């Protein structure tokens, strides 16, 4: 039985900070825990969006690649879709989107996911250039990114919200990825304007945190030497 109350997360954003970018889970393994999700490939190779069981990677060349089961990821979220409609937005920016997802409250103390499906008057995304061994730090790798922009595009914004308490394991607040219906643009969202979109929400009461304990680099790394992990994550995101 599919557990729609569970958000599965492989790895943490904190482990990316010092450059622990090895792929430690396969796409096949990840999708045993969900038909919807986001992530990145080994070496921060592009941005992954999984919608309706179809996994795509948007790479630094702007290509949308349908992924194979052996694609590996250092970090990813996944869950089984059971969204409920919460209305729609018209002429909305990121602030209005955030308020709608939070039901106009200042914050949330649980994880949830939001889908915004419709027309975006503006979308700006990024995809990072793949880092090769020896991997760069997150900050250095994030500087080597391609930026993509589009106007009046139909697509889906897939977002995961994490409470402030979990910043480091995830990014506090919203983590937004995008996929156009025609696959013309996608990736990690930097900015957007919604022309008109239907909103759907799914709340999770359980976070299943999976760590790459079979990866020697992760198990032996001392994160105390990496400085303010939360600050680096916030800047990179």
TrEMBL record:
SUPFAM superfamilies with a match to the protein in the record: AF0104/ALDC/Ptd012-like (SSF117856)
InterPro entries reported for this sequence: Acetolactate_a_deCO2ase (IPR005128)
The species this protein was found in: Liquorilactobacillus vini DSM 20605
Pathway in which the depicted protein is active: Polyol metabolism; (R,R)-butane-2,3-diol biosynthesis; (R,R)-butane-2,3-diol from pyruvate: step 2/3
Protein's recorded name: Alpha-acetolactate decarboxylase
Lineage of producing organism: Bacteria, Bacillati, Bacillota, Bacilli, Lactobacillales
Pfam family, one: AAL_decarboxy
Family designation: Belongs to the alpha-acetolactate decarboxylase family.
Entry keyword Lyase: yes
GO molecular function: acetolactate decarboxylase activity
EC number from the UniProt entry: 4.1.1.5
GO biological process, one term: acetoin biosynthetic process
Reaction(s) catalysed (UniProt annotation): (2S)-2-acetolactate + H(+) = (R)-acetoin + CO2
EC class (word): lyase
Superkingdom field: Bacteria
Assigned keywords, A-Z: Acetoin biosynthesis, Decarboxylase, Lyase
